[in-house]
Amino acid sequence: MGLLEGKVALVTGAGQGVGRALAMGLAQAGAAVVVNDIGVSLTGAAENEGAAAAVVAEIEAAGGKALANSDSVAESEGAARLVAAARDTFGRLDLVVNNAGILRDRIFHKMTQEDWTSVIAVHLNGSFNVSSAAAPIFREQGSGSYVHMTSTSGLIGNFGQANYMAAKMGIVGLSRGIAMDMQRFGVRSNCIAPFAWSRMISSIPTETEADKVRVEKLKRMTPEKIAPLVVFLGSDAAKEVSGQIFAVRNNEIFLMSQPRPLRVIHRGEGWTPEGVAEMLPGAIGPSLVPLERSAEVFTWDPV
């Protein structure tokens, strides 16, 4: 008996890469899985309309239960149809995994409105749309779990990804809000920042030797490494875990920090601009967060 025996899971963007690995892992853990994917390229162009059906075929060949769905999560109507299909087919819904996403990488001063809105629409709006559609079912059941895919590009930073970073940090806030608002109904919500070689990171520039080494290390981190944590978070074993941010890097699982006060300066008579300029750099300057990329924070090799 797997941890998810008898449960129903829904995974968006599950036609390939991380999403496919998650769908397969959830099925292996006993869940019936709704595999959602509209079959587009990394940038959102039509590419492989049969992606979801192919994953369903793999799950069924292994003895599992699955349903293919090609609704767009960027549209609230599509998300509603997706969630309805899960309940209509399998009778319930226990886990929503918001994984769908696209990239439109561009240095900020060259980023267009379309670059911005298209990424926000799939990542952030899509996560809201599916989560919102599932919320009444979870509330009625008195149980349910959300797992949202964030990224260290959002949590820490990366070049040319202001749209993606904003979306992924927005997902962190969305997850925390869901966790707080729906805890009274027995509903949990958590985030995972996955380190795994997939389309989402295959666009990393390799202009320097250091970047080439970094990419080669990432290629060794398979998306299947992410599935065990997702299975756990969707199971009853994680009933006390909500509102958290995790990262998975090969065989490592990290609990990531969340913003809390680090330092304080106080002046009883209040502040003037000159007073701030006099005191803040020396008192708080050493604690300012540097403009680092993910690779500059995770400096050791994954084990």
Automatic annotation (TrEMBL):
SUPFAM superfamilies noted in UniProt: NAD(P)-binding Rossmann-fold domains
Domain Ketoreductase: 7-200
InterPro entries documented for this protein: KR_dom (IPR057326), NAD(P)-bd_dom_sf (IPR036291), Peroxisomal_Beta-Oxidation (IPR051687), SDR_fam (IPR002347)
Coiled-coil boundaries: none
Family to which this protein belongs: Belongs to the short-chain dehydrogenases/reductases (SDR) family.
Protein name: SDR family oxidoreductase
Organism listed in the record: Aquibaculum arenosum
